[in-house]
Design a protein that fits this description.
The chain is α+β, with helices and mostly antiparallel strands and about 1550 residues long. The protein is about 30% helix and about 15% strand.
């Protein structure tokens, strides 16, 4: 459709250039017009339409809309076209350019045509000038030009060079002849004739050049040039001093004089010489004015200036008692032709005047140089006069005037004031060049006497000798300060010293120095300075030692006890002692020069050489200060010794004059034997910068022979070091010395007693310990099996008690460090080191065993506290050296008492000693403790203490022990032989593996026969009659378990057939003799044998005939062991035949966890529970205690432990199980979805959820683990749950929930998981199956393995705090966390498989499973998390479209594990199918799940479960993953 033009705007198209070019309109203006037109038409319609009919209005509105629409459509097209208008404009410009070029070509063709047709038709050429052209082309010139051109323009030819040379040579001869025949000035003898001219040069004045214009004698001289040589660079900024007009004027005058005068050369010199002299005086005058203005001010002055004649300048105008000094520069009045001369007043010597006149003869004219030379000569003259005067004052002193080598340097007079004198100490006297006055200076010092000396030199010379003497003493004082700058003393000219008017110190001269010693605040050294009569310039020193005391101005000088509270800013003189310089500098070992006072002879040998010191160093002062600083501390210590009555030998000089020593003769002590070994005690001072006392004790040998290599000789020095303190508190040093002496004496006392025990072999101490070192101040003993433990004993003077330090090999703590305070108290109370050593040896093994319990703090232990609060695992609280409380998690407390004979007693520490039924408020009773400990009792070792568990729970009245006990576990009577006692029948404890230590009765008989030393351990407090006290030695027939020998107990007899129960028992599931496949794998008919663990009630078991020592036939015939108490039930024991069967375990119940519901009565006896049963102590051997505290795996095989992780000890497993069971009861009360069921069974927890009945109980065989038994809530629901699903949850409960480190948060998460709806719990079972059996995921082609973190790991998300239960239920949503790890791919070495924590949220209403995220718009998720979130959203869309009724948790997770690919995943080294064929372990240990310390599950423990119905279809075995596109809607 062709465009229709707008109405009323049809512009006619004109032809030609106007039509092509057109006029341009702005687009904005066009839009404005269109808007205005539209608005105008709307306004018109608004006025006209109301008057028309409805049909007309509609027609008008339609027409308006059609027109407006067409208009704006065109505008839209125009706007779109305008976006490419630049290209159109370029095309238009190109077309215009081409049109213009075409027009120019057409016009040119038309013009050429017009010229050819019209103009060139009648055109003609003129005739050519053939002759001229031929001449130019042939000859190259044109000869027919007019001759006037050559005459007027071309100059004549010059003379030739040879003619010029001949002319100049002739002219030189003429000039030479004229000069010979004429008279010239002597100053113009410097001339030069060359190139037809003569040049006269007068130095520093002018240069003139003359010539003649002919050979005649009357031809006058012609002046060619005249140059003035007088110059000053500082005047006129380097421009010439004579203006060109002046030069031209001189040129005219000289030329006229050369023509008119008879002696023209004389006139030339006179005119130029007079002009130059006037110019030189003018230059000097300007320089002088500039010096006065810029630098010298009024120090110089121009007295008179006559231009061209003279210049008079005065200097040193204000010099007192001296005539005025000035000089005049003028012309020579006798011979005006000479240069300027200088006249001085006062006059100078002829030689000095010649030196000054040379300043005017310099090339550069300078008035400053003239002044400097003049003042320098005047200065030298004045210093020479002063030198003559000083030589009369200072005898035997050489004075020297040092003249400066540089120009302008002033002369200096050097005066040595003191002898010997350094160059820096000379008194330098010079003259001020400006004023002419004397200046005095000492280079090294700025003395306050120098201004007075300078004033005396200028005005009054009579005070000069006194001032020089004051300067001499002042310099000596500075020498004293410099001598003491590296000594611990400070020199002062004045000190606030107070003394009486007639005090001897007041008679000293006023020239003295006070020396304060840094280390001795109450001692002042006064140095008196005097001149030597024979040599006044030498100063001698006298020394006085003054004792002072700080005091105030108000203190009474008569009574020193009266003191005021005013500040003590003064020093009151107490004593004055004059020191002899000769004695101070010559010690007892100093060689005296006998030739002193005699004339010294010249000698060339080395003996004639003397030590020289710098002039500023005063050796007498340094020696006296060093002597005082060294001996004053000894004086104070000696006085303190005398005051306390300690005899000493006084201050002595050691041999060779090496040091000063103070020897003590005798020290007070109550330990008299040590005085026999003490040889000497010497006090010395050591150190250079920071000095300290060194006390040396010399002993003869030692009572103990140590193993230290430096303690093998008979001379045993012991050194102590003390801080150097002031004299007024010297008693502190003596106190410290006496404290160390007390330390030596106290330690020697107990060591001396210990020596008596070590000498006799019957005590056995020498074989129990070894003396590593004994230095009289410390005793280091080693003990233990391999002497690896070390104890250091020393006496602490501050605490007045002995202190112990325990150490061991590096990396191994000492077990006795926990009971250090108790052992110290025992040693200080009894002061018997032998008893402490016996305690160490008896308690070493139990404390080492207790030290194996982990005490590291753990997070997330207490549910009531924040998970971030750390709780210590095991805490040892020593009550005495033999009684320790073991606290677990701050909840349970065990009291361990170490007894003699290798036994310990263990009881529940939560019960009071006074009242067995009273429970302490800080702890919780340990339920089942008695039953647990009874499994570790060795009845052959504790037969006198053996009681049945029933008697412990119901203790009868005390009965005196029978003399002869005839039971299989009893020992022989004292009357029997040792062989009979050893071979008596005894059944070993199944938990101790047949270890049979010697019975207490046998040890008592041996002790009675050998008369050994006995020590009694502390008894239990005799409070409650039900608490059995320790047997007294008087009971029975002379034997007591409390009596034991100091020697080590005899070793146990060798074990012929050791019981395998000392090692962890093998797993009946994994390592049975006839292993069967797991019921989790597809089976036809699972078996249900008896004797299985509670958690694996449906697991197949091998025959018990080979593994259990209690078959039904033997168990029914077994008889209980007899008891010491009447009518007391006994623990069932196996028959002797079973005990002797090799390879059979006597603790068959330990290897199998029996089901309480199906347990036969003869396998184990269930004892009645009493709440206070654990309060009764249970006796255990050291081996049993070590077995309790040593970490060991619960399940073992014949080849070794199943798990390689660090396993807890049996005690920790027992207490951890109790703690988790206690926490489970609290969870049941706090959680809404769990309900407790009352049951009469002690230690068993029954609860129910919406779908399940749960029974949590403790393993009755070893009491070290918790087990779970599940059953459906209703009996008719048994078909909905399969046995293997219950087995999976029970096994997960045992291996992942109630496993070390026994965290209640994991139990809480598992308990919450059991409360979810039935279909969701089914999915959780499938997830747990994949975790327990990771090979199932590889078989199904899953890329990722899954683990269930029951607590939020540190690497997890921050949705919940770290360490809390990772399973939360809130209204209709459930939050739980899963960890997935890449599997089936072999990565390069050093690269771990990627893993991540996924927070999943399941909505019960919408049946959607998705990743949980914080509602934070700025949060940036990692790429792996984003990829997992995208995969979960895809599955959620598929699941919503498919309308599946099944729970979406496991299908969503299975889809994620099959199809998730990380964006930054490194390339694998092998295909997934190849990796799936390998044997795969537990990949969870490489994931963040390893942070939660979950125990791994063996890979062959379970099999794959059935396929979940309703899940997305799985791919075939040949494909490694599920096709994600098959699950998405088409």
């Amino acid at each position: 459709m062709a465009p229709v033009p707008l109405e009323g705007h049809q512009a006619p198209v004109a032809g030609g250039q106007e039509a092509r070019g057109g006029s341009s309109v702005s687009l904005s203006l066009l839009i404005d017009f269109m808007v205005q037109r539209t608005y105008h038409e709307l306004s018109v319609l608004a006025e006209l339409l109301p008057r028309k009919t409805d049909v007309e209005r509609k027609v008008e509105i339609y027409n308006f809309s059609a027109r407006t629409r067409q208009l704006y459509v065109r505008l839209l097209a125009l706007v779109k076209w305008a976006s490419g208008a630049s290209k159109v404009e370029k095309s238009t410009m190109i077309m215009q350019f081409l049109d213009k070029q075409s027009m120019l070509l057409v016009d040119t063709a038309d013009m050429l045509t017009r010229i050819a047709r019209d103009t060139l038709t009648h055109a003609r050429l003129p005739s050519f000038h053939i002759p001229a052209a031929v001449e130019v082309l042939t000859t190259g010139t044109y000869s027919r030009l007019p001759a006037i051109i050559r005459e007027k323009i071309v100059p004549p030819d010059p003379i030739t060079p040879s003619e010029r040379r001949q002319t100049l040579l002739r002219l030189n001869q003429v000039i030479q002849h004229r000069l010979v025949t004429s008279d010239i000035r002597p100053q113009m003898r410097n001339l030069k004739i060359e190139a037809g001219r003569v040049t006269f040069v007068v130095d520093r004045e002018f240069e003139v050049c003359l010539t003649v214009m002919g050979e005649g004698e009357n031809v006058p001289w012609r002046l060619l040039s005249a140059k003035i040589l007088v110059a000053d660079k500082d005047t006129g900024e380097g421009r010439p001093l004579v203006h060109p007009l002046q030069t031209q004027y001189l040129h005219d005058v000289l030329q006229s004089r050369l023509v008119d005068e008879k002696q023209p050369l004389y006139e030339v010199y006179d005119v130029l010489h007079f002009f130059c002299l006037a110019l030189r005086l003018e230059v000097l005058y300007c320089q002088t004015m500039r010096l006065c203005r810029d630098r010298l001010d009024d120090h110089i002055r121009i007295d008179d200036y006559k231009p061209g004649k003279s210049l008079s300048i005065s200097y040193w105008r204000h010099l007192p008692e001296q005539p005025q000094h000035h000089f005049t520069i003028h012309t020579d009045p006798h011979d005006p032709a000479k240069s300027l001369v200088v006249t001085h007043l006062p006059s100078l010597a002829q030689k000095d005047s010649e030196i000054v006149d040379k300043a005017l003869l310099m090339e550069q004219l300078s008035i400053e140089r003239l002044l400097v030379q003049t003042i320098y000569l005047r200065t030298k003259s004045r210093l020479a006069e002063l030198k003559t005067e000083l030589e009369t004052m200072l005898k035997d002193v050489d004075l020297d005037i040092v003249t400066g080598q540089l120009q302008g340097s002033p002369a200096i007079l050097s005066v040595p004031v003191v002898q010997p004198c350094l160059r820096a100490e000379l008194l330098l006297i010079t003259v001020d060049t400006h004023s002419g006055s004397f200046l005095a200076h000492v280079p090294q010092y700025s003395s306050p006497i120098l201004p007075e000396i300078q004033n005396s030199l200028n005005y009054d010379h009579t005070r000069l000798p006194t001032l020089l003497q004051e300067l001499r003493f002042w310099i000596t004082q500075r020498r004293c300060e410099k001598t003491l700058q590296h000594l611990p003393a400070t020199a002062h000219e004045r000190l606030p010293v107070m003394h009486a008017a007639d005090h001897p110190i007041a008679k000293l001269s006023r020239h003295k120095m006070f020396v304060r010693l840094h280390r001795h605040q109450r001692v002042i050294l006064v140095v008196e300075l005097k001149e030597k009569p024979e040599s006044p310039c030498e100063v001698s020193c006298s020394f006085y030692l003054v004792m002072v005391k700080p005091s105030s101005i108000e203190d009474s000088p008569e009574d020193e006890t009266i003191e005021t509270e005013f500040p003590k800013t003064y020093l009151r003189v107490q004593h004055v002692c004059e020191l002899d310089s000769f004695v101070s500098m010559h010690g007892p070992c100093t060689a005296v020069d006998e030739s002193c006072g005699q004339k010294r002879k010249m000698s060339d040998g080395p003996a004639a050489k003397r030590a020289k010191h710098p002039a500023y160093f005063i050796p007498e002062l340094a020696h006296v200060v060093a002597m005082c600083d060294e001996r004053l501390p000894f004086v104070a210590i000696a006085a303190e010794f005398s005051r306390r009555g300690i005899a000493h030998q006084g201050i002595q000089v050691e041999a060779g004059a090496t040091a000063v020593v103070l020897r003590v003769v005798q020290l007070p002590t109550k330990v008299k034997p040590i005085l026999k070994r003490l040889l000497s005690l010497s006090l010395r001072v050591q150190g250079k910068g920071t000095k300290a006392w060194l006390a040396e004790f010399i002993f003869h040998g030692a009572p103990l022979q140590s193993l230290h290599p430096k303690e093998q000789g008979l001379r045993r020095p012991v050194y102590f070091q003390y801080e150097m303190v002031p004299e007024e508190i010297a008693g502190r040093t003596v106190d410290a010395l006496l404290r160390d002496w007390e330390q030596i004496c106290n330690l020697y006392e107990i060591v001396y007693d210990l020596t008596e025990f070590l000498k006799h072999d019957k005590y056995g101490l020498s074989g129990m310990i070894a003396v590593k070192s004994y230095s009289y101040s410390r005793l280091v003993l080693s003990y233990g099996a391999d002497r690896s433990a070390t104890m250091t004993v020393f006496w602490s003077p501050d605490h007045k008690a002995f202190r112990l330090i325990f150490s061991s090999n590096p990396g191994t703590p000492n077990a006795h460090a926990a009971v250090k305070e108790q052992l110290q108290a025992h040693l200080n109370r009894n002061r018997s080191l032998a008893q402490v050593l016996v305690l160490l040896c008896e308690t070493y093994e139990p404390l080492v065993s207790l030290g194996k319990l982990p005490g590291l703090p753990q997070l997330g232990v207490h549910q009531s506290k924040a998970p971030q609060v750390a709780t210590q695992g095991f805490t040892l609280l020593p009550q005495s050296p033999t009684q320790i409380r073991v606290v677990y998690q701050g909840v349970y407390c065990l009291e361990v008492r170490i007894r003699g004979g290798g036994l310990v007693s263990v009881r529940d520490g939560s019960y009071s000693h006074l009242d067995r039924t009273h429970v302490l408020s800080d702890f919780t009773p340990t339920q089942g403790l008695k039953a647990f400990l009874s499994k570790y009792v060795d009845e052959s070792a504790v037969f006198l203490r053996r009681r049945s568990q029933s008697e412990d729970d119901n203790p009868p009245s005390p009965v005196v022990a029978m003399e002869n006990v005839s039971n299989p576990g009893s020992a022989s009577t004292p009357g029997q032989s040792e062989n009979q006692a050893t071979s008596s029948p005894s059944v070993p404890s199944p938990f101790l593996g047949g270890i049979r230590p010697q019975s207490p009765a046998t040890r008592a008989a041996d002790a009675a026969s050998s008369n050994v030393l006995r020590f009694h351990p502390p008894h239990t407090p005799p409070s409650n009659p039900h608490t059995p006290a320790s047997p007294h030695p008087a009971m029975g027939h002379g034997f007591s378990p409390a009596s034991f020998s100091l020697a080590s107990p005899p070793p146990a007899p060798p074990i012929v057939n050791p019981s395998p129960t000392v090692l962890p028992s093998p797993s009946p599931i994994l390592n049975s003799p006839n292993p069967l496949p797991s019921p989790l794998l597809p089976q036809s008919s699972p078996q249900q044998p008896i004797g299985q663990s509670p958690a694996a009630a449906n697991f197949p078991q091998p025959s018990l005939a080979d593994s259990s020592p209690f078959p039904s036939s033997q168990s029914m015939a077994s008889s209980p062991a007899p008891s010491n108490w009447p009518s007391s039930p006994s623990v069932p024991r196996p028959s002797p035949g079973a005990a002797r069967a090799p390879g059979h375990s006597p603790a068959g119940g330990f290897t199998h966890s029996p089901d309480p519901a199906k347990l036969t009565p003869h396998l184990s006896r269930i004892l009645p529970q009493r709440s206070w049963a654990g309060a009764v102590p249970t006796l255990l051997t050291h081996e049993a205690l070590d077995l309790l505290c040593t970490p060991a795996p619960l399940l073992q095989t014949a080849q070794g432990p199943v798990s390689t992780l660090i396993e807890p000890s049996p005690l920790e497993r027992f207490l951890g199980s109790l703690y988790l069971r206690r926490q489970l009861q609290r969870f049941i009360q706090s959680e809404e979805c769990m309900q407790s069921i009352p049951n009469p069974e002690p230690g068993v927890v029954h609860l129910k959820t919406d779908t399940l009945l749960c029974r949590v109980f403790q393993n009755t065989t070893h009491l070290q683990s918790l087990h779970l038994k599940l059953s459906p809530l209703n009996e008719h629901d048994e078909t909905s749950w399969s046995p293997d699903e219950f087995q999976i949850l029970e096994k997960f409960f045992e291996t992942k929930v109630v496993c070390p480190p026994f965290k209640p948060q994991a139990l809480l998460a598992f308990a919450r998981m059991l409360t979810v709806p039935y279909n969701m719990l089914k999915d959780f079972v499938q997830i747990v199956r994949l975790e327990l059996l990771p090979q199932l995921g590889l078989q199904q082609g899953l890329r990722w393995s899954v683990q269930w973190p029951l607590r939020n790991p540190p690497s997890g998300t921050h949705l919940i705090p770290t360490g809390v239960a990772s399973f939360l239920i809130c209204r209709n949503k459930i939050l739980f966390f899963l960890c997935i790890t890449r599997q089936g791919v072999q990565y390069p070495p050093g690269v771990e498989p990627p893993s991540m924590i996924l927070p999943l949220v399941y909505d019960l209403h919408t049946n959607i499973t998705q990743l949980a995220q914080k509602q934070d718009q700025n949060q940036v998720h990692p790429p792996a998390f984003a990829a997992a979130n995208l995969q979960m959203k895809r599955f959620a869309d598929y699941h919503a479209n498919a309308n599946l009724d099944q729970c979406s948790v496991f299908p969503a997770l299975r889809d994620l594990m099959a199809n998730l690919v990380l964006p930054n995943e490194p390339p694998p080294m092998m295909a997934p199918m190849a990796a799936a064929q390998q044997v795969v372990g537990s990949p969870a240990m490489q994931s963040p799940m390893a942070q939660m310390h979950h125990s791994p599950l063996p890979p062959n423990a379970m099999g794959p479960g059935p396929q979940h119905q309703g899940y997305p279809p799985q791919q075939q075995q040949g494909s490694p993953m599920i096709n994600p596109h098959g699950m998405m809607p088409q």
